[in-house]
Amino acid sequence: MRFVEDALKIAKNSSVRFENISQWELYVRSVLQSMGYNNPNVNALVETRQLDYRILAIESHPDDIALAAGGTLSLMKELGCEIRCVTMSLCDDIELARKRIQATITEGTILGHSPYVGITPAKELLNLVGGLDSKSDSALEELYEKHRVSPDTRLLDGCALNMQKAVYAHLTEFEPDLVLAPGLADNTADHVAVSSAVRDAYRRPVNSWEYVGPEGMSQFLPNQLVPISTKHFARKMFALQQHQDAYYVSRPAPDGRRSYFNLAEMLTNAFYFGRQAMRDSRYDAPLAEAFNARRAVGFPLIKRVADLKTHGR
After folding, report:
1. Does residue 112 lie within any of the structural domains?
2. Which of 35, 93, 179, 181 lies 20 to 30 Å from 195, alpha-carbon distance?
3. Is residue 257 in a domain?
4. Is there a contact between 206 and 105 (Cβ–Cβ < 8 Å)?
């Protein structure tokens, strides 16, 4: 495929897929090169020493963490971090729940994290859901309650305590050095509900980075940037591709896919934050992901916006 010639068409058509990470990386590099970045795959970090941190990534829905922090998780894994990703909710349709769990498992392989749903490893829960009668809604509800999975249609309806218990279980068992979680600035009510539950679950000071989904970018004021290379961005996009068939097919986007799976959407955000990071001469990768750190100490991946020479868009 001639990536440069097809760039505009592919970027605007989220239903187009690539077969592997290498094709995603080649395409992203060609786009950046066409924008004048002749060496877009350079190292994105000031420090590249191996890290032994434990990262707990929490998401409302199975695709949230890949959307907001897929490149960052891929980078952290490459540097030696142990990563656990916890999905707090699933749909109340058994067949679709199976698809979304499988997509989360595949995402974990791509980005390098151990996927959980509620308090249970995703592979284990997939086997349990797979054994249910597709017409047995009550059986699915009982399974969710046992494994502290919240139905995504009822996240705002009495699920706070259930989510708090799930988060607290992971905090005490996994003992993370850093928690990635949804932020209150997000415009999506489900994300805000999970954000509040996560904050309430903290029983001690926790290093925490908050993120928002595409819907919350207009109100997001990040104070931490993580520059990423095209390799990590390509893994993010390939991970998102796994979720495309697991969305609510009864409520498709105009083009049949969620619009923010589109490369143009993801690249715009990453390029915007990357340009901010590049204002510091130590960073030469044009892509970055952004977070709001409520408390973070001693992480060499951090680039504080407050340290940059200029601010704003």
Report:
1. yes
2. 93
3. yes
4. no
SS3 56: strand
Instruction: Give the distance, in angstroms, between the CA of residue 189 and the centroid of all CA atoms in the same chain.
Output: 17
Residue type at 159? C
What single string gives the DSSP state of each residue in 75-123?
A: HHHHTT-EEEEEE-EE-S-HHHHHHHHHHHHHHHHHHT-EEEETTEEHH
Are 90 and 153 contacting, i.e. CB atoms less than 8 angstroms apart?
no
Residue whose entry in the numeric block shows the structure tokens 């044009």: 286
| Structural domain contains residue 138 | yes
- Residue numbers of the domain that contains 147: 43-306
β-pairing verdict for 82-87 and 54-59: parallel
Distance from the Cα of residue 164 to its chain's centroid: 20
Please give the tally of structural domains in the chain: 1
Is residue 129, in this structure, part of any structural domain at all?
yes
Nearest to 164 by CA among 203, 120, 191, 204: 203
Give the side-chain half-sphere CA count within 13 A for 194.
Answer: 34
pTM: 0.85
How would you write the pLDDT of the chain (313 residues) with one tens digit per residue? 343 344 445 455 555 678 899 998 888 888 777 777 765 555 554 445 677 889 999 998 899 999 999 999 999 999 899 999 999 888 878 888 899 999 999 999 999 999 999 999 999 999 998 877 666 667 888 888 888 887 766 666 667 888 888 999 999 999 998 999 998 877 777 788 888 888 888 867 778 899 988 777 777 888 888 888 889 999 999 999 888 766 655 455 555 455 556 777 788 888 888 877 777 655 566 789 999 988 655 454 445 444 433 333 2
Alpha carbon distance 255, 244 (integer Å): 12
Q: What is the CATH number of the domain that holds 263?
A: 3.40.50.10320
